Amino acid sequence: MPEAPLQRASDTASNRFEGKETMRRERRYRAAATVLALAASLGMAGCMGETLQRGYIPSESALQQVQVGAPREQVMIALGTPSTTADFGGEVFYYISQKTNRPVAFMNSRVVDQTVLAIYFDENEQVSQVSNYGLEDGQIIDLVSRTTPTAGKDFSFLSQLFSATGVVMPQAEP
Known about the structure:
Helices cover 37% and strands 25% of the residues. It is flat, with a radius of gyration of 35 Å. By secondary structure, the chain is α+β, with helices and mostly antiparallel strands. A hairpin with a 5-residue loop joins strand 4 and strand 5. The protein folds into two domains: 1-45; 48-137, Beta-lactamase Inhibitory Protein, Chain:B, domain 1 (2-Layer Sandwich), CATH 3.30.1450. Strands 1, 2, 3, 4 and 5 form a five-stranded antiparallel beta sheet that branches.
């Protein structure tokens, strides 16, 4: 009978040791889960979208300096060099700005807002008209398309693969 109290004491010590070990494991799992969650959130932060502003946005004070009848030099001083110019039927300065949004880093961006400030000059190089065009006034063109148009036929991947292996694809009759 004297063995029973000793056995209980050793069982209690063993339970205490197992309880401490379980608590240590839980702490390690919590720390690992916290580190993993932080790493995942930092990794996902790199995928967040962005809004980009391109071009020149003139200030209100600069626009007030450009009135009908102002000389060309005053426009250059107030607004700076234009984004582009046109010389057809009188000189025109274009100041172009574009705001694009990309919801996720690996997706294509889309144009959210576009502004074209057009300054028209007469034959005396004085401002004849000031126009402000927005996104709704025009159409969006891709200035850098990343594709080169070529003459000839477009072949699909499979037709190219079969022609490379010697299997001839039937051609459509015109």
